[in-house]
Amino acid sequence: MKKIGVFVGSIRKEAFSKKIATNVVKLLPEDYEAEFIQMEHLPFYNQDFDDERDVPEPIVIFREKMKTFDGFIFVIPEYNRSLPAIVKNAIDIGSRPKPENVWNEKPAAIISQSPGNLGAFGANHHLRQTLTAVNMPVVQHPEVYISNAADILDENGNVHKEDTIEFLQSFIDEFIRLLSKYN
Prior knowledge:
Layout: E1 2-8, H1 16-25, E2 32-36, H2 47-51, H3 57-66, E3 71-76, H4 85-94, E4 108-113, H5 121-133, E5 144-146, H6 162-182
Parallel strand pairs: 1-2, 1-3, 3-4, 4-5
């Protein structure tokens, strides 16, 4: 059984990112297990934690938990042309201390979405830069930028456009291929 961690970049109750992520994990093969990662409880990363060997328990637990996953899916909105701080903080926490980087060679897939027309292009690319810095191979093609996110979801939060489902399936298939190279 492969374990996939799912990062949802918005903690809003009715977040489009969460609804899209919920749909996407259904496209994983049967022998894959997805778990949504909680980040709200994490303190902001401070290098003093590691330097002084006084790492708060939530960070210790988070780092250990991330080591148990084979790969990660990120579904994020765009905040001010960049990725949400909650996601960046989680990545920073897992990347330190550098010799113990929990992200090293763990494949990742990025889906960015927005209620507007740009599909969170800026957030997607900022996250790609960050994941490259922590040595995470990222699905390169197809890239997923979902514009007008509300339009692809029905009243129950399900993706109702067949062409979007097929596209997301091709993306997940590529993620599975990338995972197979590292696991």
